[in-house]
Amino acid sequence: MEDSNSKKNTVLIAVAAVLVASVGVDIYADSVAEEKVDQFIAEKGLNITYDGVEANIVGSGITLEEVRIDDSLYIESVSINGYDSSLGNLQTELEFAIEGAEIPSEELPRDYRRMYDQLGFDSPVKLNATAAYHYDESNRTLFLDELSASADDVGGVSLSFAVADMDFSEAGLSSLLFTWQQLKLAEAEVVFDNDELMERTYELIGREQGISADEAKDALIAQVKSQGNPQTDFQEDAFEELIDFIDSPGELSIEVSPKEPVSFGQLMRINRPAEMVELLQLEVDG
Asked: Over 70: is that where the pLDDT of 8 sits?
């Protein structure tokens, strides 16, 4: 099963490659887009079918609709926008999105499959995912505008950040292993948006322990409170936001907005959590 999952991940990457390769040329009509996509699929020997192609004549973009991979994985649409073929392999702006990917729960990794089934979610899992970034050459800053994933009835998580002093050339990217500590974090945010995941988790804990879902939630809150010993006003506020989220699940965000960009090397040298919080101006909001 794990080999099957790996294969499907590889094919998903191939779908992205199909799109990237297709919009790497000037496309002014759906028919031209379809021709380029079919040519790429045939050349690579991929088992990918689709019901429609839509070209974005305003900008560089293409969408595949009703995609089927290996006759077992279905995706409502896969799209890519912002690709500029004049830049070669390095794109300063790009957006990639998958909508309505239907994955049978038995195709999930073992641990996730077991938890998904225990929580009582329907199969197939219906996923949406987006990745978007742009690079500002004038101030050498890379913006990850969105990296998100969500599943129907479960909820979603998204990440965004800005990294300054980024050399976006091929030479600069190839040397990141040695220079990453010089990069500077300008801002970041992680957001979890709950749908039914938390409530179903309380129900599962309740069933396993022979108590109600509300009692399971109260026990979890008590456990979190027993672990807490806030030392600063921020820690106390963050602690309260976390407890409020557990009590009434909705959206929980963690935001970083330092007064000026902070190098990763500097962050690595900090030992005290309170100093880290102060430097990053970290904020938790429930």
From this structure: no
How many whole angstroms separate alpha carbon 264 and alpha carbon 180?
7
Output the DSSP codes for 175-227.
Answer: THHHHGGG-EEEEEEEEEEESSHHHHHHHHHHHHHTS-HHHHHHHHHHHHHHH
What is the three-class DSSP state of 125?
Answer: strand
Place of tokens 């672990």: 227
Cβ 103 vs Cβ 96: under 8 Å? no
pLDDT surpassing 80 at residue 33:
no
More confident residue, 20 or 241: 241
DSSP 256-270: E--SS-EEHHHHHT-
Residues ≥6 apart with Cβ < 8 Å to 182: 165, 263, 264, 265
Residues 6+ away with beta carbon under 8 Å from 117: 105
Interatomic CA distance for residues 201 and 191, integer angstroms: 19
